[in-house]
């Protein structure tokens, strides 16, 4: 009996040993397989990146900018590389790239042409995710498959009297049992006249509609949908932007993306991804501007020295590079949070977009200045970058609107904990606490206070992200953190103080006096109402 028991124990031990050995072998094989997969993915991403760069290098974007039209082969190049399905699932024909890899490709495209990168952001980050989140729409897989192959998708949110503020949208969607009737006007809609599908947002009306916002997928060829005005914008001249007139456009109710729910959730999620995309565009344009200016400064001589050897210019280039490092780190942190949470963090996405767009504009301006008359000449790429960069501070929420929102959320008891959690996730809980303490006692309804609080949040997050070290492998991360600290110190010298009613009235009187003087001056005629109130815009 004892011998049988010991034999059983021995078998059990040997069996356990076999299982342990098998598990160890499986773990080793799985680890090797995962590493092989990662290496394969890295090789694929590297090949895609280098192939895209090689093809874009052959195109004349300067000539396209003059003609206000993309190079004829651009669309086919982007489609061939799969860039119309950057993050779309593989089973739907997409590349299924992680967000960071998609962002790298958008930045690379923006370094050649911001208009081309804008096309990728509108299609991949704004419109397509709304369609992917609506599996109930008819032939959804077929629509997405076509989109990943080059059927462009537009995102129609902006209106003349609302901008992109959802609470002021007036376009209506009359909800019937089997149909939706859309009426209204949308302006500055990128890709509108080239699109196969348009994601349109309107205010629901009809029984039980409750005035909620709805997203509706509209066929570009739908009866009653008219493309009217083409906006001749300061920059982004390669991409078409139109006014859309919805004149009782009827769509099957199955094409309501949000069904019976408020559609603002889907729109907000897309816009947050769009802000990350705009930040990536800013990074690419910023990098190209530095390259061009540095190349010029390396050859241009000031006396016996080259420009780049001048101590002032050395420091200027050093600051430009550090700004680039901060933006890269902020983008990496934004992508990391998307991977961890499945969706962008609204506060970090907004802060990243603000910083990238503002600093891209600053660097482009500094680079134009360094080149002097050559920088102002349309024959050099810097003039184009300067014009294109200007829209980034407006796209997907103007800087002031985003800063006000960040400031309001920081100070509001309803959302303060959410921002506190974000600061905590990047190891900066003390920064959040100090910011709250600094703002205590200020008027939370004052616009200047909200902007200031938004900047404190933006730069505080940037400082935390760069200082964390895990979002940037650059050797100059410490110097980048010092730059952000310096920006914070400068910001605090302009901290808003309580303004008396008399001070505010004085500002109003100053403006009124100027307008009266200008109206009486032949040298400063006031523009007529007919000129200011263009029918396409108002």
Account of the 3D structure:
The chain contains 18 helices and nine strands. The chain is of the alpha+beta class. A hairpin with a 7-residue loop joins β4 (197-205) and β5 (213-219). α5 runs antiparallel to α7. It is globular, with a radius of gyration of 27 Å.
Please describe the structure with a list of short key phrases separated by commas or semicolons.
538 residues; alpha+beta; seven-stranded mixed sheet; two-stranded antiparallel sheet; 9 strands; globular; disordered N terminus
Rg, please?
Answer: 27 Å
Tally the beta strands.
9
What fraction of residues sit in β-strands? 5-15%
The run of helices and strands is HHHHHHEEEEEEEHEEHHHHHHHHHHH
- How is the biggest beta sheet arranged? 7 strands, mixed
Work out the helix count: 18
As a percent range, the share of helical residues equals: 55-70%
Uncertain stretches of 5 or more adjacent residues = 1-5, 11-16
Q: Outline, from the CA principal axes?
A: globular
First-residue to last-residue Cα separation: 97 Å
- Sheet/helix structural class: alpha+beta
Task: Kindly report the average pLDDT value.
Answer: 88
Organism: Bradyrhizobium zhanjiangense
Cofactor: FAD
Keywords: FAD, Flavoprotein, Oxidoreductase
Domain Acyl-CoA oxidase/dehydrogenase middle: 154-249
